[in-house]
Amino acid sequence: xxxxxxxxxxxxxxxxxxxxxxxxxxxxxxxxxxxxxxxxxxxxxxxxxxxxxxxxxxxxxxxxxxxxxxxxxxxxxxxxxxxxxxxxxxxxxxxxxxxxxxxxxxxxxxxxxxxxxxxxxxxxxxxxxxxxxxxxxxxxxxxxxxxxxxxxxxxxxxxxxxxxxxxxxxxxxxxxxxxxxxxxxxxxxxxxxxxxxxxxxxxxxxxxxxxxxxxxxxxxxxxxxxxxxxxxxxxxxxxxxxxxxxxxxxxxxxxxxxxxxxxxxxxxxxxxxxxxxxxxxxxxxxxxxxxxxxxxxxxxxxxxxxxxxxxxxxxxxxxxxxxxxxxxxxxxxxxxxxxxxxxxxxxxxxxxxxxxxxxxxxxxxxxxxxxxxxxxxxxxxxxxxxxxxxxxxx
Length: 394
Ligand code: AOF
Ligand code: ZN
Description:
Distance between the termini: 32 Å
CATH class of the largest domain: Alpha Beta
Strand content: 15-25%
CATH architecture of the largest domain: 3-Layer(aba) Sandwich
Bound molecules: ligand AOF, zinc ion
Mean pLDDT: 93
Number of strands: 17
Largest sheet: 9 strands, mixed
């Protein structure tokens, strides 16, 4: 396989970044394809001239459905022969729920394949590249687009490379960093548009996690309400498959206080509660969509060990991306444990005063150098509120 940076492209390859950017765009039409990665494919006529035009497009709509390459090849028909295939991820070489894409590309007679990332799945992991090359099809790696291709599937990479999901933590606060009044009233800090944006975060993840205190206080459903999603009709249609299933709901419930009629248990889709002891609580009453799991106890907090919960979600549920929608204590514990990969903070232009509730439940810092340092990824105004996306600074 030849690695190519943008500056090393020859005259016949100058439009390659453009074709790959389109393949990345196609992949991103799907909110999530879990447990599979999101993949896009563009077929371009001919092997290498600047005049080459795309002849077909395809993308992966979700687990069990055709991969991006056979989708594009089907759209191209006989024109695929001699074409260049731009695929955001290394074509697979195994038979899972569908057959190997490398074989399909070889059978269709494509002249060459250009990829933007390697597949971390141990069943593939270089095998797709090797299969194509041994059939005489050159493979090129556009390394400058690798960060974008990895970002597209950061949950998939996180699960396969670290054995745990990519963790996003959503928080909503007033301008003075408060989440509710001292009497507990918290509905609503942010406006309807910001809350619709949270629906989109839920639709993008595989699992939503909260704590038992939030369930006891607010009884949240934590489901995706399709009609609240801020999507165009076209976008909705592209991602229809990912909206067919609710994200797994996860409750941390160390002392088995979850009750069977809570919305998190009775809502559509599966719910898992993690406690210290297995087989305690409501399991028999709640039906087969509810499961109670046990976890090691964290010696400091006396509650479930958060890292074990993440390991379990990756291993047992193939969870790529987890959204934490919890209160100050649990969100603070995730941050303190260094387990949050991205924070999404909605800020409402309201002032609630110093007796209102704080954003996070950790305390005890005595020096500025101990502060949790974050970097701002983006700041977006969402009607009356702001959304700030941050990542912890390593
Ligand atoms: C590709 N193109 O569009 C995708 C790929 O169970 P299966 O058959 O759907 O296989 C899932 C695995 O295939 C997934 O873990 C990843 O390694 C690869 N995904 N590969 O060539 C695609 N979605
Ligand atoms: Zn495939």
